[in-house]
Every structure is written in C-alpha cells, then in structure tokens.
C-alpha cells in the first residue's frame, strides 16, 4: 500500500473510529415516525394533505424565499423552474460541466441544449470570469438577448450549482446574467442550509431548486422544491406540477401541458420532521469539518475544502482535494478507503465526457478537468461528530 | 329538485347511509404502519431499499408479468414504457380521447403527438372496429410500418386504457396493432386487479403500466410501475428510471439520457402493505357493485356499468351512465349529489377539447362524445360494502 492512501485511511479512522462509514446516510431521530404515522392514519398520503402545505411553508420560512413548491424530486424541480424561466426548445442553457447529470437532463427534457462552463477552484462552482471571456467571444446580440454565434441558438439561462453545498460566486454570476440577458436559475439541490453573504442559496436567481433525495442533508425519500420570490411564478409552478388542472368542483380541464410532479403527502410528512432537525444536522456537519481539518492537517499533499469567504456552507459532502502532484493516486485512495469500509467517491464524470452530452457546446474546462481528477468525497453524515 | 337527481341521491343513500362519502379514499388497515416504520428505522427510505425489490416482486407475482419496475408515478411509467416501445419524437401514438390527461402527456413528453380514437360503449375503452376503419383511410405503408398520410408522421404505438378498471377489447386491439405494425402499450393505470380472459391487464402489450396514486385501488402515496415479460426491456426500464447510471463502485457514468423516476423505498413500503390487502379491496368493491346494482335497478334512465363479458373488472370507480334522454341532467345530478356530501364526478374532458391538444389528429369520436355527457362516477372506496 502506498503511503498516501494508507495515511488517508489513518486520518479518517481518527475521526470515524474503527467501524464502516457510509458516504451520507439519513438520520431520523426527531418526529419522523410520528408524522408519518399521523399521515397514514389521516389517509391523506398522496396528492392532497396538510404536510405538503406545512413543508412548503417551513421551507419558505427557513430559506427566506417568498414561496416554496414541493415536488417529486430535484430534477423535476429544475425542469419546471427552467420552463418557468422561459427556457424553450432549441435554446442553450449555461451549466457547469462539473455537476450531477440531473442538471443537464433537466435542460434536455425541455428540448434545450446544455452548454458547459468551467468551475472555480475556490468554490467548485461556475467561475464567472472565464465564462465572461468565453461569452465575449461566442455570444452575439439577437432579439433583445444573445445567441451563440456558432450554433445560432438563443442563450436563455444560466444555472449555477452549489457543489457539495459550497456557494459559488453569485455576485459575479448575477452580473454576468444581467449583462447577457440570461435568466439565473439556481440549482441548490446540494445546498440546503448554505448561505451566500448571509442569504440562503437558491433565493438569488429568478427561481431556485432544492433536492431531498436520500443522500441529501435532509430527505423526504425522494423530493425537491422550487423556490421563488415571485408569487405568480410560484402559483404557476404549483399549477404545472399538478397536471395544470384548473380548479373546479368536478370538471377536468387542463389548460396547458403540465406534469404529475407533486410531492406526496407521505414524503412531505417525513420532510417536516427532517427540517426541524436541520440546524442540528448542520451543526454536526460543521463539527465534522473541524475534526477532518485537524485529522488532515499533517498530510501535505491533500487539502479539505472549506466554505468560500463570505459564505456559510452546509458541508453536505466533505471533500478532499489532492495536489496535482498526487492526482494519479486518486483511484488508489478510493480503492483503499472503500476496501476499508470507509465510503469515498470521486466527483461526477464531467458532463461533456458522457456519451449523451458529448457533442454539446462547451467553454474551455481546464479547472473542472483538474478538479475532477483530484476530488474525493468523504463520509459526511450528520451525527458523525 | 328534479326527480332524477333526488332519486339518485336516495339510491346512493340506501347503499352508503347518511354520512358523506368521498369518491375514492385509500384504506390502511394492514401492515402499512409497520412496514413504513420499519423502513424509516432502517434509514433506507430513498432510492435503495428492500421494499422496492419486494414490491416489484409482489407486483410481478400478482399480475403474472415476468417483471415489474416500480417508478415514481403512472405518468412516468407510461413515458418510459413508450420510449422503450420505440416511440420517437415526431411519431403519432394512438390513444383514447376518453382518458386522463396523463396518457396524452406521456406521449407529448417524448416529442410525439397523440392521435385520438373513439371508445366502445360496452367497455368505455378503445374500440378496434371503427379504429380499423379509420386507419384504412388514413394510414399508408412507409418504412416497414405505417404513417399518417395527412401528417406524414409515423404511427408507432397504440395505447389502450382500461377505463375505470374495465378491460377493453384487447383481442381486437392486438389484432389491429399487429396489422398496422403498432407496438401495443397498455395504460393499466386504473386496472390493477382487472383481468381479460383470466389474464391480468397490463400484461398483453409489449409493456404495460400501473398507477398507485392516492385515488387508485391501492396507493403508495405517489407511484407507478412498468410491467413487461421482456427481461431486456425490464432491465432497460430500471436503467432509464435510475438516471441511466452504469453500475460501478464509484464512477458516475450515465450512458444515455435517463430519468430520476425510481420509486422511493418509503413509498414502496406502503405499497407492499397495500398489495397484501388487494384481494380484500377487490372483494369489497364487487360487493359494492352488487349493492349499487340493486339500488339503481328501479331507476329506468340510468345504468350501472358492469364488467365486459369475459372480463373481471376491479371496479375501481363505480360508474353510472345516464340515458341519452336524461343526459342534460348530468350537471344537476353532480350538483345535488356533491351538495349532499356524496362525491361524484363526470368523466374527464375529452383530450381533443383541451387547449394543448386541440390541434392533434383524431378519428371521429361519436361514442366518446356521447359517453362523456352521460358518465357519472360514484363513491367507490374499498370498505364501503
């Protein structure tokens, strides 16, 4: 065993002890059983029920968004948010190459084309400076906005994603979105609890989205939400995600093509209980960061990612970055740690390396290419510290 | 109050008693609380867990399909089933005009165009005879299959839906599908428990789908399933509905554009308990039919829908049909019954009357047009009789 992987296992053991550790498991120590039992007893487990309303209100209160609309998962939330942001079939949407595939899929479902941009080393999220340079070269004014001069497609939206819970440079991206007439939609799937200059991520764009998948900071089994300050957009989001059925005592009139995307009440019941514990989860995750920082301080060729200046990260996934000099040991580290029962994983495959997105337009991606060879996510569950 | 609405309320009261009655509410008197509690205690509430596997196996065993793949809802199931059936963007897909909007939406999500066909009075589902006549006129051979000569679009699939749980004429439709090289995909969203010549609906086409929405015979909160006898299609369905991620110890490689459509384990836990009670639910619903038949026997201008010959219906929604002579009293009946706390509803608005589908191709729809003016669904929950 080469020294670095073994040293990383040792460092992890000082924090996690001798047992196995999953990457991120949910924690149900609050009112989960009670609320879910109550939900079943009420018989309202599906598309109508008080927990959905309550969960939406709790999310709005917590994030500071005027409205939250609970849906079936984060992908569905992003698809609908992009549609409401005006993304149309044939548009291009700027998204990070370093993201989970759902970001690109949501664009694709609308008939639009993802256009990949680079990340910043400091935030792991979209870097506005090189993206501005790129747009200077490829964007030309057309119809009140901009189009990609090589493809002729309208550039309609910009979708930053807050990687592993670390807020990206929203000021820079908002300025860029303004200058290029791009609607900013935040993919905050990973960043519930993360704040940028004191304000919750997902509330800076015209719309933002959250995810409550089982591996997220809080879970509803499967679930997501759309955030917006615009009441009209929120009402429209609710309409679209409930099959666009008009209110009527008995008639079934659907006035546009909607989706069956509403979060079931059963899942919202779990979410209400989880959200009550979010402050505790976040505090535990920050303690874990402190302990990992201490454990990895002696290792010279690796660095634990910390929240960017001016930001408060939720530390959804704790992340180690290998120095370039030892990047070739990434797979050895992954093998040895996973063999030891300490679940680690690399970043996602960059979007433009995936077969279905290989031919999409993209900016130069030197930082994302470097990051993806060096990132290792560590066991990160709430309750580990 | 005119005599007919009052007589219908009286008839309903003889069956349902004095209290209010919803159209269809779920019934949780089995292992629901136990399985859901166990699921939460296991922490596996989301995209991995034993209840999903168990629910899929139970569904396969019950329906006789070789495989069942549990997904997030019936709409998602139909979208993926149609994709697996080879439906492509720009195709036309034959579906009943008399259906819930999800049938048309699933076609639309794939970039295909619904083409509406008429129903049979006896089954409420697609009528193969007039559809054959229609296709004789508008279909022309092209590329090994048929295309619609007026639109130039390929006719790729035929989607019968078993309305309110009554099996439609599958023999006639299978023969038609064979002759016109249409892939048959069954929308069995409403017909869990319904059999055609002894075999479960949803298992006749290349693929079939089920729904477990809150208003269905059994519920998972929100949920659906894809049924197929083709192992390769089932594996592909599982792959597509889990973001098309290849199995790997840590790499994130998605080899095609998939969906986040997997049923959460929490919802599957509810489903396992519900499925155990399905035989009791079906027996109760059949008892209710007998009681409604008796109660409405004296009313000359209405008729309770019964299962078609050779079929066993699940009687998901009990359905009254008004004679043509009293069709103009439908809204009065709806008003008076709902005012009395006895929830009734009409059939859906026919698909070609909805704004987003107004311009889609359609066959003549005289029977559907007539049925939609005369159908009234009655309180139908399991446990009422």
TrEMBL record, chains A, B:
Pfam families to which the protein is assigned, alphabetical: DegT_DnrJ_EryC1
BP GO annotations: polysaccharide biosynthetic process
Pathway: Bacterial outer membrane biogenesis; LPS O-antigen biosynthesis
Keyword Transferase: yes
Reactions it catalyzes: GDP-alpha-D-perosamine + 2-oxoglutarate = GDP-4-dehydro-alpha-D-rhamnose + L-glutamate
TM segment ranges: none
CDD domains xrefs: AHBA_syn
Domain of life: Bacteria
Named cofactor requirement(s): pyridoxal 5'-phosphate
EC number(s) from the headed UniProt entry: 2.6.1.102
Enzyme class: transferase
Catalytic residues (UniProt): 216 (proton acceptor)
GO MF annotations, alphabetized: GDP-4-dehydro-6-deoxy-D-mannose-4-aminotransferase activity; pyridoxal phosphate binding
Modified residues (N6-(pyridoxal phosphate)lysine): 216
Gene3D superfamilies to which the protein is assigned, alphabetical: Aspartate Aminotransferase, domain 1, Type I PLP-dependent aspartate aminotransferase-like (Major domain)
Swiss-Prot/TrEMBL keywords: Aminotransferase, Pyridoxal phosphate, Transferase
Record family assignment: Belongs to the DegT/DnrJ/EryC1 family.
PANTHER family reported for this sequence: BLR5990 PROTEIN (PTHR30244:SF30), TRANSAMINASE (PTHR30244)
The protein's name: GDP-perosamine synthase
Originating species: Thiohalocapsa marina
